[in-house]
Amino acid sequence: MINSNVLNVIECELDKKTNTVLGKYGLYTIEAKLNFKRVHNGIVNGRVYELSVFSGGSRIIHYDCGWKQGNNYINLIQRIVTELEKIQPSKIQRLKKLVTPWK
Questions:
Q1: How far is Cα of residue 48 from the mean position of the Cα atoms in its chain?
Q2: Counting C-beta atoms within 10 Å of the first and last residue's C-beta, which end of the chain has fewer, N or C?
Q3: 53 within a domain of the structure (yes/no)
């Protein structure tokens, strides 16, 4: 059984040119841009410097080097960012070759 509260790496795709990660977290669709080094304008000075979270086709969270929308979803944001921070680019690239992207 898949834990719906864990970002499923098998359902992630990495665009190597833009470091954009597309994925799913439970019922949410995630689009994030990562810098594989920590950056001062990332969420909590981390590697995630852009984040959009969609629910039912509507964007509920948007961060682009600063909060644009949805910063009141702090519990959800913390869980998603924690999982995104664990992503290693080599692991996603390897998995990308093995699976069909969900998008």
A1: 8
A2: N
A3: yes
Q: Is residue 3 included in any domain, yes or no?
A: no
Query: What's residue 9's pLDDT?
Result: 43
Position 102 in a domain: no
> Domain for residue 101, yes or no?
no
Render the burial of 15-50: b for 16+ CB within 10 Å, e for the rest.
eeeebebbbbbbebbbbbbbeeeeeeebbeeebbbb
41-100 per-position pLDDT tens digit: 888 888 899 999 999 989 999 999 888 988 788 888 888 888 888 777 665 554 444 444
